[in-house]
Give the backbone structure.
Amino acid sequence: MDKGKFRKRGVDYPIFDGTRTLPGKYYHSEEIYEEEVEKIFYKFWVYACRAEEISSVGDYKLIKVANESLILVRDKSHEVKALFNVCRHRGTQLCDKPKGIFKSKSIQCPYHAWTYALDGKLLNAPLMKEGHGFQKDDCALHQASVHIWEGFVFINLDKNPAPFEVQMEALMGKFTDWKIDELRIAHHLRYELNCNWKLILQNYQECYHCPGVHPLLTELTPVQSAQHDYSKGAVIGGFMDLSKDGGSMTMTGEAAAPSICNVSGDDLKRIYYYSVFPNMLLTPHPDFVLFHHITPLGPEKIINDCYWLFRPEIINDLKAQAGIKSAVEFWDLTNKQDWKVCEQMQTGTKSTRFTRGFYSGREDILYQLDLELLKALGHHNTD
Amino acid sequence: MDKGKFRKRGVDYPIFDGTRTLPGKYYHSEEIYEEEVEKIFYKFWVYACRAEEISSVGDYKLIKVANESLILVRDKSHEVKALFNVCRHRGTQLCDKPKGIFKSKSIQCPYHAWTYALDGKLLNAPLMKEGHGFQKDDCALHQASVHIWEGFVFINLDKNPAPFEVQMEALMGKFTDWKIDELRIAHHLRYELNCNWKLILQNYQECYHCPGVHPLLTELTPVQSAQHDYSKGAVIGGFMDLSKDGGSMTMTGEAAAPSICNVSGDDLKRIYYYSVFPNMLLTPHPDFVLFHHITPLGPEKIINDCYWLFRPEIINDLKAQAGIKSAVEFWDLTNKQDWKVCEQMQTGTKSTRFTRGFYSGREDILYQLDLELLKALGHHNTD
Amino acid sequence: MDKGKFRKRGVDYPIFDGTRTLPGKYYHSEEIYEEEVEKIFYKFWVYACRAEEISSVGDYKLIKVANESLILVRDKSHEVKALFNVCRHRGTQLCDKPKGIFKSKSIQCPYHAWTYALDGKLLNAPLMKEGHGFQKDDCALHQASVHIWEGFVFINLDKNPAPFEVQMEALMGKFTDWKIDELRIAHHLRYELNCNWKLILQNYQECYHCPGVHPLLTELTPVQSAQHDYSKGAVIGGFMDLSKDGGSMTMTGEAAAPSICNVSGDDLKRIYYYSVFPNMLLTPHPDFVLFHHITPLGPEKIINDCYWLFRPEIINDLKAQAGIKSAVEFWDLTNKQDWKVCEQMQTGTKSTRFTRGFYSGREDILYQLDLELLKALGHHNTD
């Protein structure tokens, strides 16, 4: 249907007002969630950790991808491996501490002491005799594919993953000026939320809610400045303009640090908001990079890990700590404002009276996100 | 089948001894509960709140009817509205504080600031353009029907509700002498119970359990005096006689207050026990009115809110507080005695060995309640 | 398939290396668990309590068998009865205190005061008239069959139970020298574990895990000494040799008490490990007897009650308390080591990458246990 158009900054936008949202079951149904896990979280590239978190041989971090536990580990060739946290002997979880270092440079099962190399190869299965259905070489730990982009470790649990660059086309070359691979984690906060993972992505892609929900953010970046980048596929994003030259998203509105590396021109006054489908939000500022890692635990429960990346010299500069703190406080405040309304939307959409909502023109990109979701699920209609 | 009869107070009663109860699944099954929600809680008139709780324009109280959250609110015409707590934009729960006042005399969604009048009409949907599938006039908040009887606000979530007077025929004109609409809440206690909602209604309709469970109640109102009123449909009830003239149900057995308004004659020595199917228990005393509001949260979990209504002049009289306190203590004690056995019945009926129990003649009206339930569910047999 | 053989202590054992474990669903699936409850826990003889725990007329102990609550009680003929904890009137749980004494020598329902003899017979149903579908004699409490072996009370919930001696053939006459019926509970510890009940039985039947998991146990009883007894059916077991003459499983390795009664010869240096399928582990030492009572609460949750049995004269001897304490501490330590790996196995086997594990030759008897399980369930394949 022809929805008409409206002009904004000299551009004709289609009018999406009145386009309908997904039905409520897409946020609550256990069945749809299981389908999402299988067709999205176990098929797509998903964010796992920062390379810096496992910088030395033997360093590891456990992550969850839906129901799966994986060990992200730096092996002896200094490569990052993503090993399923499951012994090949009888299925015991190999490791249950969230992070650490394998001091022996090997991974030993706590139950029967089967021992694996850091790259997953089975080194020793005590007393097991080969040749009666058991071959050591067939018993390496299962692993997921790994791709590192700008210091972000992405993994793919599918046995035949699509190329990273296809899924992430919208990101290729996009934030090169920030040299994000050189940045380091200055701060981390973990949030546990009672809402569907998609509500977080949707929340991040529209500023229709900003005037009411985020008074401070709206002061620093006027709502009217919100604009979407051209993007393809499920990675979608846009930016907003800072109202103050040399400002940033902090409690004071002042930059938290000098601008990063080669960031220049318009980027010095823009905050980018990218939803890196399905489990990451990426927000380059002129002076730092914020990102969220979303771990779904069920249709109505997620963990959201939020990280602040700064230049290492800033992190190590005592005089720069106030700026970092101000950036952390600003986003912690803003995050909590968002989580509250996401959780209220989660609750409300369970009503039998909620069939499908209405998108405004400011939420056009959410409709695109819905279409990508349905495509990934292979749903031709939503009933 | 002919079950014979027995005489009591000169009346021939059919002998129900040996009539069988419902099978255990009616108290535990998730499926049957869902059916009850749909065919009973979303079809019948259900108790919501007292009119006095939302007496001024903008006053509201949130209530739950099974899985639905509703805003009971006094609108600008001083009418009570029962609005579904779900924004028409994208389904966000509008309000999450249990009660309060909408100071702006409007209801604003916390997410994108859509704003509704107190009667549910959509006043403002910022930036939304009409005419592409969206019409403001079609986007009033969904609402339930409202009927106020004696100061009790009842609502009906069905889109074509049956007349209130048909469902509540047994109550029509029944307690006029109490002028219950003039009474006010003197006290409120909330209980959370692990049992099916029907066990509470059943418990209230037989005094077969009184000698063992309620020694004090049995002293104040002899078990032999228990008698059922003529009643029709799912509203069932009866009364018991006070053993002491001018007494009431209090810790001392003395009246908590002077008798109410026009209460006279036999009613001065009677305690009425009505189960106002499906979610209310109503207990007029000569001197006050007790009632319970049952909110099911699942097949095995309910909230029970218990209220004591007194004349406003009693509530405001410092010298009358001891009487109120004595009534509260008596019923809190008695309630807890009941909850304990209801929860034990809930547990026991889960045994594979429990098929169907046996009703005694003293529990004949419970059998009638079962039949009304099966009728409402459209169950012709219970296997 | 021919798996070959290997020699151990002059005996040819078949090589089981590479035999596959059960698929993960046998540890997690709600459906398979329900099947196990019905076909195993409600069909097989299961351990209930020690006879000493209900030694006098009226003494009772509540136990759970999966979802059923039973009252183990000593009746007036001094026999042990296993009564379903469910009133025949309307299904109320009769008793909710874990243990005690029925002082009235009868069991009265707390709801409507129906009263039963200690052998389950209905003595009194107040006001109930017989002859209209209700007969008192038909309304005794449901009961399970009872068999006492060596002071252990076993019960069977099946209405036509197989003979105890058939299921427990492997135990018949096996531990007579210990006169276990004369022993008494010196200590009891309760553990709540997040794992499937079968993992506990499996854990108890192989010492492949001992070197890594139990350093102290391995010092006291060398792993190489582990050997399986001949056993039939689902009761399986074996023993290990103490490295020290006159030693036992205690923190010091010294015996906790003099050896028991007629225990002699090889038994003075052996620790027996028997899995009394489905819910008991039995571990006779030269000087005491340890046993575990496993109560499943779901596919991934159990209660494990661990008891230490000693001669009564030891329990009453003040000077012997240090020995008892040392035995308790040793097994508490060892238990917790086991529970940790069992819980990690439970978690790991939920991975989609876990299909079936590999048994080593040291785990041959676990494969036998799997076959017995599948036989009990009537599963001809495990897909």
